[in-house]
Every structure is written in structure tokens, then in C-alpha cells.
Amino acid sequence: xxxxxxxxxxxxxxxLLDPQGKAIxxxxxxxxxxxxxxxxxxxxxxxxxxxxSADAALDAADVMCRxxxxxxxxxxxxxxxxxxxxxxxx
Amino acid sequence: MRVAVITFxxxxxxxxLYKAAQQVGGQASFVWHRERGLEAYDAVLLPGGFSYxxxxxxxxxxxxxxxxxxxxxxxxxxxxxxxxxxxxxxxCEAGLLPGALxxxxxxxxxxxxxxxxxxxxxxxxxxxxxxxxxLRVPIAHGDGNYEADVPTLEALEADGRVVFxxxxxxxxxxxxxxxxxxxxxxxxxxxEAGNVxxxxxxxxxxxxxxxxxxxxxxxxxxxxxxxxxxxx
Lengths: 90, 232
Hints:
The complex is a heterodimer of chains A (90) and B (232). Chain A is α+β, with helices and mostly antiparallel strands. Chain A has two helices and three strands; from the N terminus they run E-H-E-H-E. Chain A has one domain: Mth169, Chain: A (2-Layer Sandwich), CATH 3.30.1280.10. Chain A has a three-stranded antiparallel beta sheet, with helices on one face. The mean pLDDT of chain A is 93. In chain B, the strands form two sheets. A nine-stranded mixed beta sheet of chain B has the order 2-1-3-4-11-10-9-6-7, with helices on both faces. Chain B has a two-stranded antiparallel sheet with strand order 5-8. The longest helix of chain B is centred in the last third of the chain and has 14 residues, at 217-230. The model of chain B has no long low-confidence stretch (mean pLDDT 96). At the A-B interface, helix 1 of A face loops of B.
């Protein structure tokens, strides 16, 4: 088994009103960044897990997203591999 | 009417619901979220509050509770299920109602009375109201902005599944009367079969003249009446 660290990024679906993003957008504009056109706020979730392979870990995270981590009505998600290392054997 | 009030860690309207069910002559019991089995009940109520601290998304963790499998089976079997506030959020997360409740458009927690227009009186939750009746009921939520994809929203309207709408003093569903940005001022919806109602406002907090309004009583008497006429 190998130890993997995965990053799950969950973000509001395009077109869905994101009031947090809107508030931050206005705030950045008022700080002088007039070139900022849009801001969307999502979240990142880090998962440490053991799996047979990187693909198996990514597949598992995909199921986790569908079942719990993201709401398909309002959110999209992406999963990526951050790091891997051999799990300590006993 | 034997009523189960499901209690999650972080529920805070469970006693209000318990008292509301009792006030109309129901026999209420608390059911902890880790318990199993709802066969002994005629109706299931999911209370408001902040189950699991709203972590991840409101209702997302509570939806995974053991009792929710039984709530889904109860609803699929036609049993009446009412979710208020966090209870509505849990019903959406569980897929018993379509759509989702996202952050209020104002980004502010909204805690005040609202006016609701009763859009449907042919449901088992609203039969004791009159069509178009205006109710004064409190809200208290940060994530009550009802959203869904366009086909879902259009189907809700076409099928007449919007039961309550936020309205102004003249009974109009204006933007100013909308406390959270919900599409078409939606405050409460039923599922296709009509036995699952989710709503953000709190009828269980509008049960006593002393507390400002008794407009919530009709919802619980409606349930009481429909259950006593359907059960032999």
C-alpha cells in the first residue's frame, strides 16, 4: 500500500450566485485592483489515505465527492494528487 | 398522531417542534439520530438548528446519520415528513426534496418575522389554511437561499409544488420581501407525492399569542386532521 495525499477543490457551479465571491470582488476593487473581473469562493479539502495505486486513490476521492464532499446541485469538484510515499510496513 | 422529532447534534428547535405537536393533540417523542426504526410513528419532523455546526454544508453530515435511512424509507412509503430550516436543508441533502439552500444573498444571518403566502391548501400540511392566506412567521437562517437548476425550478412552478412564498404587506412576492435571495421567493416546497414538505420559516415558533403570532398552528392542525382522516 502507498500513502497518498489528495487535494479536493470544491467550487460553486458557474452561473450560481456566489455572494461571498461577490463581496470579496467588491472589496478587491475598492482596494485598487480595478482589473479584477470576478471572484469565486470554493474550498479545498486535503485527504491522507492509503491505496493500492494513485488511480485507486483518485477513484475513491471521486466517490467521496459524489457522496459527501460536494453537492452536485450547486458545486463542481476536482481532485488531484499532491504527494505519495511508501506506507511504513510492519 | 404519533410524531417523531429527530434530534441531531446541534438541533435547537427540537423542543419547539415537540411542544407544537403536543399543542395540537399529537403524541410527540424525540428520536436520537443514531437510533433506528420509525415504524411506530405517523409523522416525522426534522427540526431547525445547526446540525454538526453546519460543517461542510448545512445538513450534509446529518444526512449521513443512521436514522436518515429510515426517514427516506418512511417518506418513500408515503409517510408525512416535515423539515423546517435545518430540517429543510437536510431533506435537500438527502435527495428527498430537489435543489439546495445556499448562503443568503445578503451574506447576513436573517432573524426576523416574514410574511408568507399560502400557495397550496390541498396538501396535508396546509389544509386548515385558506388559499392566499398571509401568515406571519419568524425566520432565523444564514443559508436559506433556495437554488436549483432551471428545469427543476420550472417543474416546481408548473406542478404547483411551491407551498409558501415570501411576500410583502400586500401579498406580493416582491424582491424587497425576499429575505435571502431565493428563486421566485420560494419559502417552502413539497415533493412530487406531496408527503414531504421543507420550509425555511419556523411555524413552530408561531404557536402562542404571547410570542407574537399563532399563524403556525394551522400547519400542525392540518397534519393532525389529515392523519386522523386517513388512518383507520
